[in-house]
């Protein structure tokens, strides 16, 4: 077999990068569980008719066939899921009678999209989603709570931000603000207006104005008003007065402004600086009906949003049953791929091992394994050296992997000693009681 | 949308089952890391030519195509991996220059096989693998260590076994014993003999004898000797004398017996009862060259092996570089699916939540969220009630999910109280200091 080469769009992390990813995933999971979200995994495949319900993403689906079926030309009718929202909506409908509502779940899984690969865009990538769905009606307060969960979950990323500053900013808007405003302006095709404004960052205000005229039937004055709304941005509740100053009146606009103000107020109390009202945020997907979210990494705003979502009312319904929800999805692979590419994150070591037990001769392996077992029994990850090489070589084995401690069994009744190979300090130690510093127990994630 | 139905062969767990799975996976991961195995994930897809290298599994591969390519009839040349061994071997070859050997990794991922679904056999399932690979040569002692890791990892399963008894038995054999024995008998096609003996449990000794004659060129006496070897089974080192009594002499047989005796001796010292020498264990795959393992759940032997593997020398090689290894693979979905089907395992609750904060009126939500945040800050998973319903209804909300505690904010300067809804006991409590019993902090896994 010749040496294989990577597949474009299918990233794989080396052990040290994977250690960073695991640390991030552990923190996400721990936070989600502290808020009462239950873990859920759905199968990787969905029937093609489910996946193609929303025409715009159809081109990205990977279709699956069993090898024999390919030969026969038959179609398995299955494809790989391209997000976790569609499978979650299907799971809720399928199991509604066996779930308790409101249902809070987190879901951390790979998804696949057959898009052209480019920086920060993959064909296989990991998403971490939280959603709350309820039966019939979903109280608004979940739209307030969910960004706080994300703030706690991503709050520990060591991105070199100033002390006391969160590494993320969640940009918040509310569909009711936009739709109410457009309606109050006299525009009837509010969806077309939203789609035009959604392109603001990509094509700029002049072209968006043109689109508003061409696709949403806006006059020049209406287009200017839409752009004025999209310019409004504030770190506090002052956005309300700025919208009022545009003198558009609509009951849906009032409702949206009140909701958005509540999100901003709760976020300011929970984690100052976490949220920002950003009235240009539209989100491409048409199923959002209330609050919408996008998330930027401080200092890496050029990456775009690494965590997005919103309130939806019509995603999961069967007959008369409706399951409205609100959710956010973290693009874990996208975020880490960009941070790795920028050299922004690494791990203190590439193995879980905290201690390497040195081996004087192969006959001592049994005794060394018992020493290792004693350390493991107290939660200290330990390996025994692979061979009875010279001690210098065994120490280099530890150094290359970042293992901080080497344990030397005492010869002839001498006590064992343990050496911190970073400082060189070597002390007598008992495997039944010795404890490494807490920071050395597991790999740490840090800015290099 | 009509209510969706399950897809045969693609299992999905309900939240309480998923809580069991998470608990098992946490224990596996924790154990693997204590032994210094680093986490690794590989992409879900491999080039078809990689997946089809071993002809026997080709029919099980799921082929992937992007939707447009299907329309064009083009072939993407990619398929979903059907195990974690082939991708791991590919990863090692691809990244050999960036890994440190011996390389210990664990890998917990879904795999896919387009087989006909039946009880305990799935089209999508989770595997948990550990392997140690080295460059050029792999010391034998890893073949001794790996079953001990599996014993520790699966040792905590509460399967109702007697106190002090492990829930699993690892059946061990060594390819060198079989091949040496067959060679010493005068058989030249030892692979054919191995394939015949591998069918013993399925077709019985008479038919195996027939196969040995027909496919391995054995005489009746040679076939009887092969079956006599396969009958040998012992919980200690006594298998050696029983093999010697068959009076077959071969240096490879001697080597194999010595190795198998070492595995048995180390296992007896580490975890009495964990391993059993079982000389009929052959393992279907032809790449094993030393120790082979199969694992049974005590009391559920009818399930067959839930964790198998062995030593391999020729799986990963490119040009002159060889990477021999030894590994074991736990069929997590298979094991849990069978245990769930037998009603053998459940979780104490279906949510991570330990405390529900009751809500007297919607205006108190902010204060309740602060109470929840104080509890979460000390590692206690907490939710605030979804609405200010009557307290009886809020308590039923907790009961239905298995949440053990309901927290009642004190009215008018009264202290808060917390109620254990199982016992009904209700006591004054302070969110800054109150701690639930350790067993209530997370869902517990138990026999129902």
UniProtKB/TrEMBL annotation, chains A, B:
Binding site for L-histidine: 83-85, 113, 127, 131, 283, 287-288
InterPro entries reported in the protein's UniProt record: aa-tRNA-synth_II (IPR006195), aa-tRNA-synth_II/BPL/LPL (IPR045864), Anticodon-bd (IPR004154), Anticodon-bd_dom_sf (IPR036621), His-tRNA-ligase (IPR015807), HisRS-like_core (IPR041715), HisRS/HisZ (IPR004516)
EC top class, as a word: ligase
PROSITE patterns xrefs: AA_TRNA_LIGASE_II
Ranges annotated as biased composition (Low complexity): 425-440
Residue ranges occupied by any Aminoacyl-transfer RNA synthetases class-II family profile domain in the UniProt entry: 102-352
EC number: 6.1.1.21
Gene Ontology molecular function: ATP binding; histidine-tRNA ligase activity
Keywords, sorted A to Z: Aminoacyl-tRNA synthetase, ATP-binding, Cytoplasm, Ligase, Nucleotide-binding, Protein biosynthesis
Region Disordered: start-end pairs: 424-448
Catalytic activity: tRNA(His) + L-histidine + ATP = L-histidyl-tRNA(His) + AMP + diphosphate + H(+)
Gene Ontology CC: one annotated term: cytoplasm
Gene Ontology biological process terms, A to Z: histidyl-tRNA aminoacylation
Keyword flag Ligase: yes
Keyword Lyase tagged: no
PANTHER family named in the record: HISTIDINE--TRNA LIGASE, HISTIDYL-TRNA SYNTHETASE
NCBIfam families xrefs: hisS
Assembly mode: Homodimer.
Annotated family: Belongs to the class-II aminoacyl-tRNA synthetase family.
Record-given protein name: Histidine--tRNA ligase
